[in-house]
Amino acid sequence: MLRTIRAFWDDQRGIAMILVAIMLPVLIGFALLAIDMSRANGLHNDLQKGVDALALATAAELDGRADSITRANLAKTTLLTNKTKFSTSDDPASHDHTLALADVTVTYLTGIPADDTTTLNAAGVDAAGHDWSSTDPKAVSFSLVTVNPSGLTDGAGAFATIFPASFIGSKDTIDIQPQAVAGFVQSICETVPIFMCNPFETTDPLTSKTIQQAFASGDTYSRELRILKVDSNPGPGNFGLLDNGLTSIQEGMAKGTAGTCYNRNSLTTKTGVTLGQVNTGLNVRFDLYQGSLKNQTDLGYRPASNVRKGAKNNCNKYDPAPAASALPLPPGTGYDTSTGMTLPIPNQSFWTPYWTVNHGQAYPGTAVKPLTNPTGDMTKPASRYDVYNYEIANDRVKDQSPNPTKEKGTPSCYKGDLTKADPSRRLMNMAIVDCKANQAKLNGHTAVKPNGYASVFLIAPIQKEDAKDEDNPEGTGKEKAISLEIVDVDGGFANNTLVDKAFRNEAQLYR
Fold it and tell me: What is the DSSP letter of 335?
């Protein structure tokens, strides 16, 4: 008997089956874990793509306007159509679950932590307890999208595991909670490399207006603004330079570009002498090719299609004509040196001398509509820009003024292709800065946030203070102010012509 027991004990036949029986659950468990991890990774990738797309879509609407959050929420409701697999397996019908609003939390932020390792919860609070969230549509510029845990949803980010984790005291589901943060970035690429001080800024917050507020209320309409370059302590009625990517300011003035794109929220000012560069650059738009720009054929230096300026027929300098033989668009009245602008055009008779001299007949009056008046008030006299466009639209550019000047509005000095003359060449985009509030920054040549951007219309060529300096336009002779009208601004109260043509809106993923 003892020998039999010992023989059985020493018999190793079938030992592999015992080992297999012992290891089989372990092997199957690891296999199930591998499958579950693969499924979890697949679900995470699917959901991450979904929340990335949703963050980008909502952030793209956060442009600082009063309705930005409303538009972001609309994007949120219309773009949630991403299909995700491996959802809750308790219900077979939900395996191909559609990502819904109930599955995610979207929070709008004013900013994000500088360190990417600093985590944010779904409410926008970071690990240090700082709350970055806001409901102010003008303050938010980031969208935080987080997939909710399964306990709060129908399970878009959760699925039941194949591995029976409940046997080892865990749960048989895995929560997948990817997160994405996207931000709104706006830049302007078609703008001259100068800024103009906001003429409606005051030291009293109760009376100070942004350029957008002034435009929306009609305060900018038909006023003539006159701006001069200063290197220190600029204020209303002044302009200054911006950092740019150009070899000369003259090029930027002529072509209407800074050679780079500016961030909507940050500009850097720059010192430098502009005498002889601003006037010769801008005056090509009036078919004047002065100094080194003579015989210019570059398409970027083409004139406007209406260059009537009340001048003698001289291609190389601005030579004003006698008032009886040709007139430029008329200057305003009631000029205020503290703001750098005139009163609005008072009545229809304002246009009588200009129209009689240049067109030989009575001004059409109310037939010239104030189409660019942001208030929509059609009883106001037309602005200079409206009259300029009326002349183009009604074939009055070719009208000839009396002897001896016989000026027409059609360009004749440009040596390139005159069929490329463009009405918008007398428009340029310009940054507007609150110079009083940012005085220290402007003097220190540091980054400053602009008040906004404006599309401005050039009323007349820029002259030298001393007429004899017109023979040396690129010299250091002092220049008269740039004369212009504001035609449009950026922002929610604008006519949106500037935004459509110049601004580039982008949404960027940050984490």
Answer: -
- What is the domain range of residue 109? 22-186
Q: What is the pTM of this model?
A: 0.74
Of 210, 236, 233, the C-alpha closest to 442 is: 233
In terms of domains, do 106 and 244 share one? no
Which helix (H) or strand (E) segment holds residue 36: the answer is: helix 15-59
In a domain, 1, yes or no: no
Please indicate, yes or no, if residue 480 is contained in any of the structural domains: yes
Q: Do 87 and 203 lie in a common domain?
A: no
Sign of the dihedral through C-alpha 274, 279, 283, 289: negative
Residue 229 shares a structural domain with residue 168: no
* pLDDT average per 10 residues of sequence, the chain (511 residues): 70 72 75 72 78 87 80 76 50 55 85 85 88 87 84 51 61 74 84 92 89 92 93 85 85 86 82 78 93 84 95 90 94 95 96 96 95 93 97 96 94 90 90 89 79 92 88 84 93 63 78 82
- Alpha carbons 466 and 2: distance in angstroms, whole number: 131
| Residues 221, 370: Cα–Cα separation, whole Å | 9
Q: Are residues 182 and 197 in the same domain?
A: no
Q: Which helix (H) or strand (E) holds 77?
A: helix 68-79
Is 462 in contact with 487 (CB distance < 8 Å)?
no
Query: Are the C-beta atoms of residues 434 and 198 closer than 8 Å to each other?
Result: yes
345 and 387, same structural domain?
yes
Q: Are 329 and 387 in contact (CB under 8 A)?
A: yes
Provide the CB-side half-sphere exposure for 508 (13 A, CA): 9
Give yes or no: residues 334 and 398 share one domain: yes
Domain count, the chain: 2
- Yes or no: say if 171 and 165 are a contact pair by the CB < 8 Å rule: yes
For the chain, helix (H) and strand (E) counts, in that order, are 10, 17
Shared domain for 246 and 362, answered yes or no, is yes
One domain, residues 298 and 353: yes
